[in-house]
Amino acid sequence: MTVPKMFDNDDYSKTLWLLLLIAAVIILAGIGLRDPWPADEPRFVEVAKEMVNSGNWFFPMRGGELYPDKPPVFMWSIAALYWLTGNLSATFLIPNALASLLSVFCVFDIAAKLWNVKTARNAVLFLLIAPQFIIQAKSAQIDAMVACWITVAMYGLLRHFFYKASLAWYLVSWAFMGLGIITKGVGFLPLLLLIPILTLHFTGKHRFSKEQVNWRLLLGPIAMLLVLAAWLLPMLHIADTSNNPDFTAYRDNILFKQTGERYANSWGHINPWYYFILSVIPAFWFPMYAFLFSKPFWRDLKASPIMISLLAWVVLVVLFFSISPGKRGLYILPALPMMALLMGAHITNVGIRPWFRRVLVAGTIVFGLVFFVAAGLCFSHSHVVAKELGDDTTKFAWLFLVTGLIWLGILIWKWKSMDLYSFGAAFAITWVLYSTWGYTLLNPIRTPAKGIMDTVQQDIGPAGELGLTRFKEQFLLFSDIPMTHFSYLTAPQEQDRNAWLWMSEKPNRFILSIQDNSMTCFDTSKATQLGKAHGRHWILLGENAMAASCKAPDTIKRYHLPMKRTYQ
Fold first, then answer.
1. Which UniProt keywords apply (predicted)?
2. Given 138, 300, 375, 538, which is the most exposed site by the fewest CB atoms within 10 A?
3. Are the CB atoms for 375 and 406 separated by under 8 Å?
């Protein structure tokens, strides 16, 4: 593989800092240029905002109501930066950006230790090229952070078993598994690496030293439990002594429903068992998996216990998530850094063969065509893009056209000598364009709740009070006025009954909701139409839309959200 001069050395520090600089430019580009985008970002940012506003950092809350779906670690990171700076829009993307840069460092450093600097360089190039890694690094979803903790844990295990026996690093890996668990329950996944390692050891195919495999391995779970206990014990104590049924419900939900029950009997994102293999990996892990179809890779694999262990772990992780009926593409992100490490080792051994160059050329053609087709659809104001981007699609057409020309230019330049550097350069430029030009174009479209909340504030006037039913978190996040809601977790019709009761108690109260034929206690034909946001039509209900009577709610639930510090 032809190596550009800037990479043409085996100096650990120079290569590492150059790669970290490139990764930082790609990942940090655009921070502060956009707001939180659905589906998950407004939720996590709103929870973080409420932590700072309420002073309650231990139990995550959404609209003053406990948010029982996730532990608080990721929200803590956003809240801490908000508390320090007072600015959410400029900081909410930073935690995942820093976590992803740490993942890059771990991949580079362990590759350099297990093999050499060239392998480390190639592994990081694969990682930065993989679309899924950058997508999550530039978002405010939990998965990039939990993937980072899992990567650190894998780093510790690989360092102990394959580089140099180190009880300290072994215990660190278990501690980060604990941190991963209290970030998102799957933090234990590095444990699966012990299956191929111990299999190799006890079958005699690769004997580890007594310093690497001995009774001290049993100390690992203690390190993990200590980290778990730092969050779990106070949470259990508060839930048991508070006499607050919401805290008890949070405890039960987070420990049982959101862990084993969600895995075994998922109620959302239902996909077939082959979903990751056919729908996620081909596009989002390109082009690493291409080596799985080459004979040299399997010959290389047989000669390396490290590569055997890495591939076995990646397969076990994908299998683990494939068994559960509930699947989202980002679930398998934690396996991506180790896949990059594995393929970086292989390509360093065999170099870029002609067939792989053709794969990269084909990928360049496909990605370039996608942008040219998108540009054509935007120039022609096609309904296909207009329904997602709004009526003014021409401004997006220029972005797509410029991006397509970049891919075309690199294709022409490197037609016969395409390599990871050229392919990666096309991606790097694309990400920077998307994170600057693209963010400014997309942000108004991805945050329509801001405009709706401005309209609502004008419609209800300074004396009006606002309630919400069937709402999305972005309406809480982008509001400058106090609001009342009737439990996000309650059935919609029960929310309607609580909302009607609340409105009947005092004049000049209004309800913001979606246009829904199942709504009870209100006549939606008398509602004020507010417009469409995130695929739904939103309405404002006043006193004239209230039914003459309404069945009493089974339980009166009201959560009031004062706006001490608003989103900025």
1. Cell membrane, Glycosyltransferase, Membrane, Transferase, Transmembrane, Transmembrane helix
2. 300
3. no
Tell me what percent of the chain is helix, strand and coil, each rounded to the nearest 5: 65, 5, 30
Contact (Cβ atoms closer than 8 angstroms) between residue 92 and residue 36: yes
Whether residue 151 contacts residue 159, with contact meaning beta carbons closer than 8 Å, is answered with: no
Would you state the structure tokens that stand for residue 339, as one six-digit string? 């896949």
Q: 79 falls in which pLDDT band (50, 70, 90)?
A: very high
Residues 6 or more apart whose Cβ sits within 8 Å of residue 252: none
Q: Which tokens sit at 385? A: 């893009």
What are the angstrom distances between the C-alpha of 494 and each of 178, 440, 473, 525?
38, 39, 19, 20
Both tokens assigned to 90: 């400029």
Query: From the centroid of its chain, how far is CA 338?
Result: 18
Q: What is the pTM of this model?
A: 0.94
Report whether 451 contacts 535 (CB < 8 A): no
Secondary structure letter of residue 467 according to DSSP: E
Closest Cα to residue 485, out of 115, 62, 47, 150?
62
Tokens 């690493």 sit on residue: 288
Q: What percent of the chain has pLDDT over 70?
A: 96
Query: Where are the strands (E) in 19-69, listed by range?
Result: 61-62, 65-66
Radius of gyration of the chain (CA): 26
Per-residue pLDDT, 77 = 97
297 CB contacts (<8 Å, ≥6 apart)?
291, 346, 350
| Residue 466 three-state SS | strand
* Phi-psi category of residue 59: left, alpha or beta, with phi > 0 → left and psi -120 to 50 → alpha: beta
For 227, the token pair is 């980290």
- Whether the CB-CB separation of 73 and 53 falls below 8 Å is answered with no
| Mean pLDDT calculated for residue range 25-48 | 95
Phi/psi for 466 (5° steps) reads: -115, 130
> What is the DSSP annotation of 8-29?
-S--HHHHHHHHHHHHHHHHHT
Place of tokens 């001995």: 214
pLDDT on residue 544 = 95
Q: Are 482 and 562 in contact (CB under 8 A)?
A: yes
φ, ψ of residue 550 to 5 degrees: the values are -155, 140
Residues 6 or more apart whose CB falls under 8 angstroms from that of 116 comprise 10, 348
Residue pair 244/59 in contact by the 8 Å Cβ criterion: no
Q: Is 6 exposed, middle or buried (0-12, 13-18, 19+ CB in 10 A)?
A: exposed
CA atoms within 13 A on the CB side of 559: 20
pLDDT tens-digit profile of 348-388? 999 999 999 999 999 999 999 999 999 999 999 999 998 88
How far is 148 from 91, CA to CA, in rounded Å? 19
Q: In whole angstroms, how far apart are CA 464 and each of 461, 506, 509?
A: 5, 10, 6
